[in-house]
Amino acid sequence: MVSDVGVVFPLDKSGKRGSLAVNQAIWADAVRGVDPDLAKRIDASKSWRKEYAAFIPEITALCASSREAAEAIAAAGLESARSRIVFERDGQVTSLDVAADLAPAFEFATETVQGKAVPASELVVPYLGKELRGDALRRKLADWVAHGIIEPSAASELNLVIDNPQWLRLPGQRIAVLGAGAQTSPLPALTSWGADVLAVDLPREQVWDRILKTAREGASTVHIPVRTDVKGSVAARAGANVIENVPELANWLRGYDDQPMVLGVYIYADGALHVQATLAADVIGTSLVANGQTVAMAYAGTPSDCFLVSPDAVEDSNARRRSRKWRALELPMRTISVGKLYAPAYEELLESSDGDSMGIIDAIVTQQGPNYSLAKRLQRWRAIESWRQGQQASFNVAPPTWTVSVTKNRVLAAGYYGARAAGLEVFAPETMSVLMTALLVHDLNVPPVDEHPELRLTRAGVHGGYWRVPFDIRSTLLYTGMVGIPRAYLPEVQFR
Predict the structure, then answer these.
(1) Is the pTM of this model over 0.90?
(2) Which one-letter DSSP state was computed for residue 13?
């Protein structure tokens, strides 16, 4: 699905707004300055929907060659996306670089909700019906590390947040949450901690009923954009379409320039709309910076992507494979399947010209499609570009999570239901949300480590085991899928 208003893919020669050709061109443009031959091969692809997933590991490996290469690819990819995709309104086509500066078609008013609760005094993580805090939470973090579910740095950073509960309120900062009503939105955590929040989501009354309930039951001040030309309750007047309302949202957010702002992007949409929404948020964020505001972009990455990870993760994965009791049976199966079953997660370490060593993990799920991969890569590119420019940004990889977008896809759901058999853990949305929001709090309070930007992306990954399991994720899909199929295809069976 492609929108025809706001941030849109351009019309092609046939008068249609196809996304595939533009998607392909953006990836090619991203690497052209670093590896022209790779760019030519991407340009020459005749079936991008089928071939995109084979190119992304090559592009990711290219980022490993040097810090400068990773930064150049990120900058070029963003520039290409913002030049090829446009803003259209009332028949007028405008460059994304100036879309946020267009005269607003209307001005949002603000509805402010003050929560009645007392701010939480400590980090509490809901998990399997329990509330983990203090030593119990520290033990669970250590257990996740031991089982390869989260990175050791993620546990260290979360322990630091446990030690500094005063950080939870984000004093001296204001956070704008795009996608405030999403299943994995940080809004419930932020409001329980007493943060100052700007909540944005689509103008859908049922969505805003939930957001308003969360705000009223929390301990925060929550500011909401509302239309003055719409009658009815606050929920009926609240909200904005990020894709369509770029000038209006940018104008509204400029009114909150008295404190540093965090612009958290938690929007999910199917297909091309995901790319459009991600770019709309990007345009708004960069326009605020150009306006002189201090803005930190914040994202939660997906584990179903291709990443560069630490040598420690590679060695841990290899050690787990060598120690498996069933290895003698798995090796023949790998031979019979010509390497398609039980393949090692990593082949060899990559070395950068800066002296960095890293492994490459390819966990792309092709069912999610090329636009999903591009949208998530645009978020990574913006984080890297922000760091290059000396700006604050937060990017941490989130775990596989039981969201509606996953469970409505039976193939993905089957894999998730069988994930534990492969050493993975799928998280409940409320657990994932608190963990990722706590990592954001850490990033806003602790200076980042100076390292290769791609390793900075994965330093504190809460990946659910993707990076440390013994085998390539896709080489175990037959097994995990068979384990999970009964639950995925029997509606009466619910996840526990």
Answers:
(1) yes
(2) T
